[in-house]
Amino acid sequence: MKKLEILVTGVGGQGIILASDIMGEAALAAGYDVKKTDTIGMAQRGGSVVSHVRIAQRVWSPLIKEGEVDLLLAFEKLEAARWTNYLRPGAVAIVNQHALPPLSVNLGNEPYPSDEEISVILGHRSGRTYFVSGTQFARELGDVRTLNMFMLGCASLFMPFKVQTWKETISQRVAAGIRALNITAFDAGRKEIRNVHLGKGSAGHGAGVMDKEDV
Question: Of 4, 101, 112, 182, which has the highest C-beta tally within 10 A?
């Protein structure tokens, strides 16, 4: 792998910063250089949050240039659409099937786009867009805070790190009492991408997948 440019986006309260921190720490543990920067919206909860994560043998700057993102990991659908212009042609977009309408939508000033509209927007740049049931799974698991680990599990199929490296990094960053729950969410994200999406026709195991372990 020469380099991997990742944009992680969503809204406050979804655990985006922790997810991108773990992503960076897993890359360091795997022997790569990493640069990362976060932008947090005005509100602690509900404001837009985005993390730039750059991984390579040597990285000089934390900011990804527009049009160079390889992997978009979006915790909220509208935030995915907002950052489409950062994707390189053929990029992978993983989008949590969940809507958190901004104030302008709640006030009736503008509509929230449909899934079809979001897919069309992403399709201008993304070669493969995967809508995943992260929030639904986290609720069923009993703790919506595990959404970020589910999304990391989804992303892990497109990153060249061993599963053991991911799980060791997660274990170092979450409390012992919720460690097993978070690992379960991570495994579920991997399973959804592998079994639900990558098993479908042309989106097979050669579609940009860099998974290091077949588990």
Answer: 182
